Amino acid sequence: MSKNRTTIAQIAAEVGVSVPTVSKVLNGRADVAEATRLRVEAALTAHEYRKPSAARTTGANASRPRLLDLVFHEAQNLWAQEIITGVERTAGAARVGVVLSELGGSHRPTQEWMDDVSARRPLGVLLVLSDLDDVQRHQFSSRAVPYVVLDTQGTPPADVPTVGSNNWHGGFIATRHLLELGHTRIGVVMGPSDVLCSRARVDGYRSAHDQAGIASDPGLVRWGPFEAPSGYRHALELLSRPDRPTAIFAGSDYVALGVARAARELGLRIPEDLSLVGYDNLPITEWLNPPLTTVDQPLREMGSLAAQMLITLAEGGSPASTRVDLMTELVVRDSTARPATV
Questions:
Q1: Mind listing the pLDDT tens digit for each residue in 199-247?
Q2: The CATH number of the domain where 231 resides is what?
Q3: Strand (E) or helix (H) holding 59
Q4: Going by DSSP bridges, is the β-strand pair 293-296/329-331 parallel, antiparallel, or unpaired?
Q5: pTM for this structure?
Q6: What is the count of structural domains for the chain?
């Protein structure tokens, strides 16, 4: 231990509380007054307090439960299930349990959630399409709780371990495929504009146009949730235009389902009247009619790799890399074809 390391006794003396009170705050106990907890948290942050790593301690910390907290902004879909499968594959082999929680659509956990996790004292936390603010990051680091971000919502600090896929490349290959078929008016129904993967996929879409020497039309780009109703709503509008697109690149397979429904209601056939490309390559896509051309995002591998990275950090090790982007590939099926006018 460094001779300048701040102790919880010093924190307690500075704040004017007992050592057990500081310990309760560190362990996420609920039986501390909110005002007191905030004062203790402020002192811990000011002193950059770090709890000794569980991998190097004995006694109570040595019996820390072998649990991994897996948290989604939303988890009630097949996309999340693919990630869960990958996480459990690695966690199960390491005899680590998985605690699943959902943030109700938010990309940042509440303080109550943070306190509950601190009280559970897991090996670590895996955040999916979510992140922490500076105060929350310190709360985890001060309690020696490592965390990894999978499929980042924004751009995390350089020292935050992340696992994702090459979203720019995914948008590029999806659009290049449609351009090579002869489509020149390609619509996009993407996810939220404030999510990093959405912006990267649209950047890939634009780059494919630039490479082909064909101008992309900003008026054909739509943003919304990665959900079927968003695809349906935006596709109805795009496909009702007199200069409608002859192809649509959907930001997720769920969005593509909504686009397909809108096309059917407007009397358009896929792929004869409209080519459609999805994103994620969920297992259901090969069973659609017609089977969906989509970008394969290796969700299970992403979950498995992120879990392994987290377990390595929790055990005091150093992962081979703390910034990983897996490759995306295009899976061509029957939902894309040359436009009828070509």
A1: 999 999 999 999 999 999 999 999 999 999 999 999 999 999 999 999 9
A2: 3.40.50.2300
A3: none
A4: antiparallel
A5: 0.80
A6: 2
